[in-house]
Amino acid sequence: MHNGLVKVVTGIRRCGKSFLLNELFRTRLLEMGIKEENMLFLKMDDWRNRILHNPDKLLDKIDAFAGNNSQMHYVVIDEVQMVDHFPDVLNSLLHFDNVDPYVTGSNSRFLSTDIATEFRGRSYEIHLAPLSFAEFQSAFEGSVQDAWDEYSLYGGMPGLLKLNTEEKKTSHLRQLFNTVYLRDIMERNRIENVPEIKELIRVMASSVGSLTNINNLTNTFASKKKMSITNKTVASYIKYFEESFIVEQALRYDIRGKQYIGAQSKYYFQDIGLRNALLSFRQLDKGHIMENVIYNELRQNGFLVDVGDIETRTPTGSRTHLEVDFIANKGSHRYYIQSAYQLQDTEKEEHEKRSLLLIGDFFKKVLIVSGHYPPMLDDYGITTIGLFQFLANPNVIE
Known about the structure:
This protein has helices at 17-31, 55-66, 86-93, 108-111, 115-118, 133-138, 144-154, 166-189, 194-206, 214-223, 231-243, 272-278, 286-300, 346-357, 387-392, and strands at 6-10, 39-43, 73-78, 99-104, 123-127, 247-254, 259-269, 304-313, 319-330, 333-340, 364-369, 376-377, 382-386. The chain is an alpha/beta fold. It has 2 domains: 6-127, 3-Layer(aba) Sandwich (Rossmann fold); 130-398, no CATH class. Strand 9 (319-330) and strand 10 form a beta hairpin.
């Protein structure tokens, strides 16, 4: 608040951006003692506000609302992309000394990750994600395990909490992708080949938790899908998915060499339910789903996350590479995190910890296992914690 910038709430469609501003933020202002007459909430998708799509009319209304007094006025514009020349309108709002502006929107152009460029560096982005597991559980009636079973299958889109059958939830997620996300991408980027782009996102959904690159995806099309597509087209489609916050890339980082390895990376879905729906709920690899959820939790808690790589040698002297699932960085803090769905025996536990033991530095190393597992520190400085403990309080890794 009051930072002299336009506050821009971004995020995947239907994750609750309008509710955040129109309901929760309004309540917060009232709790702070802000008077109703100093708040202006404008919903541009309301037919009665269609005249305000004209930028001059909108600015005139805000000018009349704010007046010339010194009291701070709060302007919230929902679906701002419906206003003609809206970037110029928002930049104009910064010339009001007594206006603190907040906006959100719902088409791909507005939600794209280059929003800062759209507003010429004069905006402050607030990224809203689908519900975290802890948020989902707070509205779920049942045990933690039941909540996890539901969340790991259908994800955290808020609208799902109103639906009471598997058929309705499945249909909701499929409709979101086909009639909302995909349509936005197609319209914004003028794409005509629908089967091609739908098949690519399914291939990416299948490879969650696995290293991949543009060549791998292109070759998959050629060998398995019997479809011809160029590397350039694949790269463009992936960019569109990232811009609409459907997927996010985690780069591969050489821990010992302290540099990024550009050959391969991983892609995680911002909502695991959307990923499962794209695969018709058939490829439900519990380990990869858990890994995707952990990645999202780290990102929602402000961490920058990479995939770790350690080169080592086998007993015969040949080189091999071991993976650390996540390198999580926040400021001067770094955590190496390994995700393991189950530790059936000592051999499995040693296998999961091997890459962590080879790192060689003194940043904290964490092994997250499924279910309940109170934090436990071993003789090598590795902390093992349960997934439910981590999701309930991500700071437990500290």
